[in-house]
Design a protein that fits this description.
Length: 303
């Protein structure tokens, strides 16, 4: 990854057309706050009102560890005006939805570069996250991930639109696939994860829309965390703390990683190629796994 990684355990989406929610976004414990101009904004408000509210919030100093804006899709009538309205206010990241082709990323990169220059901002200072939400996007995910290494930061799974694109007969966004004997999203998640990691990007799971079902949220987060995902979108403040816990590094996991690294270092100092830790062989691959845990802990403030 050519850009420094960010903590993305919880990426909280706030409707850009709702002033009350924009105000309440200040002080949330989410790693990333996403001011949304796309799906949560009514069609009649996409022409300017939401854009102006989001740009004003950015200029007023709305702060979070990472502040992002989700614009509308490149192939619609709003994306270029969304970017023109908010880029000068210097969000950390732009989230690009429904990316079907690498050319979508290239378009956003070129337009953002011009807008950054116009506003006197650092070239490619604004990062990009792209959402994989259609069959075409999933089919091109490897090329999309490689499209702009100087600006790209993460791939994001979009379960609702992808379910519609694939013709899946259910309507609970982010929930398990009813009637399927296993995890109906496993192939999709695995492909997005591998494409992201191959290009040094982070991988983020999409939202879980059954807000009252925190057990279901925890189960969904545990599945993608086990695969290696960095975090998940939240759509209600009650979801933020469970996601921070699910994608963080617990005390036991951190202690185990430290002991693995200590055992490996001791074996290397003694000239041995591997160590024994409580009956488990610790070799160089184990060391790299433990270092990955330590890197996540440092990124999220656990170490």
């Amino acid at each position: 990854m050519s850009r420094p990684p960010r903590a993305r355990r919880s990426c909280h989406v706030v409707p850009g057309s709702n002033p009350r929610m924009l105000q309440k976004a200040v002080g949330l414990e989410a790693d990333e706050v996403i001011l949304d101009l796309e799906d949560s904004v009514a069609p009649g408000e996409k022409g300017g009102g939401a854009r102006e509210a989001v740009a004003a919030a950015l200029r007023a100093g709305l702060r979070a560890p990472t502040v992002a804006v989700r614009v509308n899709a490149v192939d619609g009538p709003h994306c270029h005006r969304d970017l023109a309205a908010v880029a000068g206010a210097a969000p950390d990241v732009i989230v690009l939805p429904k990316v079907d082709d690498p050319s979508h990323v290239t378009f956003a990169d070129h337009l953002l570069s011009a807008l950054e220059h116009e506003a006197g901002l650092p070239r490619r200072g604004i990062g990009l996250e792209v959402q994989i939400e259609t069959a075409r996007g999933l089919g091109s995910v490897e090329a999309i991930a490689a499209a702009c290494p100087e600006r790209m930061e993460a791939l994001v799974f979009g379960p609702g639109d992808l379910a519609a694109s694939l013709g899946m007969p259910h309507t609970a966004i982010g929930a398990t696939v009813p009637g399927y004997p296993g995890d109906g999203w496993h192939h999709v998640l695995g492909r997005i994860l591998v494409a992201a990691r191959a290009e040094g990007l982070q991988a983020v799971d999409g939202p879980y829309a059954v807000i009252a079902d925190l057990d279901g949220l925890a189960e969904a987060a545990a599945r993608t965390r086990a695969l290696g995902f960095d975090g998940k979108w939240s759509i209600h403040p009650s979801q933020i703390a469970p996601l921070n816990a699910a994608y963080g590094v617990g005390a036991a996991e951190l202690d185990r990683a430290r002991r693995v690294l200590q055992a490996h270092a001791a074996a290397a100092a003694a000239g041995a190629g591997a160590a024994d830790l409580e009956g488990e062989m610790i070799d160089d691959a184990t060391r790299r796994m433990a270092e990955t845990v330590m890197e996540r802990a440092r990124l999220t403030g656990a170490a």
